[in-house]
Specification:
There is one protein chain. The protein has about 180 residues and is α/β, with parallel strands linked by helices. The protein is globular and about 60 Å long. The termini are far apart. Strands 3-2-1-4-5-7-6 form a seven-stranded mixed sheet, with helices on one face. It has one domain: Rossmann fold, CATH 3.40.50. The chain has six helices and seven strands; from the N terminus they run H-E-H-E-E-H-H-E-H-E-E-E-H. Helix 1 packs parallel to helix 2. Helix content is about 35%, strand content about 15%. The longest helix is centred in the first third of the chain and has 22 residues. Bound molecules: S-adenosylmethionine (SAM). S-adenosylmethionine (SAM) binds next to helix 2, strand 2 and helix 3.
């Protein structure tokens, strides 16, 4: 009997949608970087696909990668000085020592099928990056980063809201006043 009506979303459909959203958001971020210098941070190397995409779209730009267990496709291993081996939990508290200070884009692709673990890790990452990232830095993430400092930017047309996220780091006026008052 032929299939009729609305087909259920399979895990294959969902995987493809996630990757289409990831590429669209990364390309949107690359467009926003036009004319701006600065380094990129890739959090989670995996197979190295998004690392490869970023280095192709941003030739000549430094891309530092954090990965606890680097086993990418052999053509996608970052050069040694730009690979920081360790967990996000270990590295982020040492960000000032281990990561470039001139970041203009962070890509965090860290999710698994475990929603609770994803939410916990997103919180650790959001908090760990918050004090380190310069104002104006873009953050593309597979997980929502629900903190005030991450201002959501529009997602490219055709991408389902919530599939992938794009933020710009903003500091509230109040935070600046507090910093100014203490100096
Ligand atoms: C979904 S994969 C990234 C896929 C990659 N974007 C690609 O295109 O191939 C997630 C990666 O994040 C790494 N990862 C997950 N949690 C981590 C953590 N807490 N610290 C460091 N790396 C982590 C995993 O080892 C895995 O390689």
């Amino acid at each position: 009997m032929p299939c009729t009506g609305v087909l259920p979303l399979t895990r294959l459909d969902s995987f493809i949608r996630r990757l289409v959203a990831q590429r669209a958001v990364l390309d949107a971020a690359v467009d926003l970087l036009e004319g701006r210098g600065g380094s990129v941070l890739e959090m989670g190397l995996g197979n190295g696909r998004s690392f490869d995409h970023l280095r192709a779209r941003l030739p000549g730009r430094r891309i530092v990668v954090i990965e606890r267990d680097p086993k990418p496709h052999p053509a996608c291993m970052p050069p040694c000085p730009d690979l920081v081996v360790g967990t996000f939990e270990e590295i982020l508290p040492r960000a000032a020592e281990l990561l470039p200070a001139d970041l203009v884009l962070v890509h965090a692709d860290m999710g698994t099928g475990d929603d609770q673990r994803n939410a916990r890790l997103a919180d650790v990452v959001a908090q760990g990056l918050e004090g380190f990232l310069p104002e104006g830095c873009l953050v593309a993430s597979d997980q929502a980063l629900p903190r005030e400092v991450y201002k959501p930017l529009p997602i490219p047309d055709g991408i389902e809201p919530g599939r992938y996220h794009l933020y710009r780091v903003t500091r509230s006026t109040a935070a600046h006043i507090m910093v100014d008052a203490s100096t």
